[in-house]
Amino acid sequence: MTLLAHPPSPPIEPIPAPPGRPAAQVPFAPTAPLDMEHPAVFGMLLTAVAGFLDVVAYLTFSHLYVSFMSGNSIHLGMSVATLRMSDILAISSVVIAFVLGASAGTLLQDHAREPLLPLTLAIEAGLLLLAAAASSVTLSTISLLPVAIAMGLQNVLHQVSGTTSVGKGFVSGALVRLGQSIARLRSPAADSAGTATLFAGWIAFVAGAAGGALAIARLGFVPCLLLAASALIALLIADLSRR
Questions:
Q1: pTM of the model
Q2: N-term to C-term CA, the chain
Q3: If I label 181, which of 46, 132, 224, 237 is the partner at 20 to 30 A Cα–Cα?
Q4: d(Cα 115, Cα 119) in Å, to the nearest integer?
Q5: What confidence tens digit (pLDDT) does each residue in 16-52 have?
């Protein structure tokens, strides 16, 4: 996600002073939104949510992922080889939902006039709440589709910290970039901050996955969705409070 430049600070306005005294000049310095002031931290929190939801879906829906589409594609190939039509339909529907989410995110990125990150967080949280409501009625693959859409959306509208992207829900590409970054640490193209960010992003994904494994065993699918939605809403409130 390309971060928008901050608008110029408003002009200094004089404070009315009592007669006979000069007016005081007090500058007004707006606080930067949380995602712009700490994009790496914000992106890593989104990555942790993706890892959390991937494990929750994997353990609930016969090894289906909502963000790790490489795993779903391998599962789909195995199902095609054995002609297991129910699995083929379920996996294909999740992949299609993820692609639709990525398409929706691209349209938002290209045409939205509102700040993208708050809008994205609001949509993601709404999709998770929709999935929770559907799952409370019937725990089926259909209730998983809004989560896959949310993850596709998030992968398009990720965060950028310097030259390093964070906040995506798949880590293979990030680990490749981490290896490349490590190899260049002694070269003129070294980016030690980017290397640290990539490593921290991987740790965030693993931590989120561990949290998902613990939560699904104790809470169940619907409470885990509500927990993830609450985390996104908290990030949304934290970001909006600084705008």
A1: 0.79
A2: 18
A3: 46
A4: 7
A5: 555 555 544 544 444 555 555 667 788 888 889 999 9
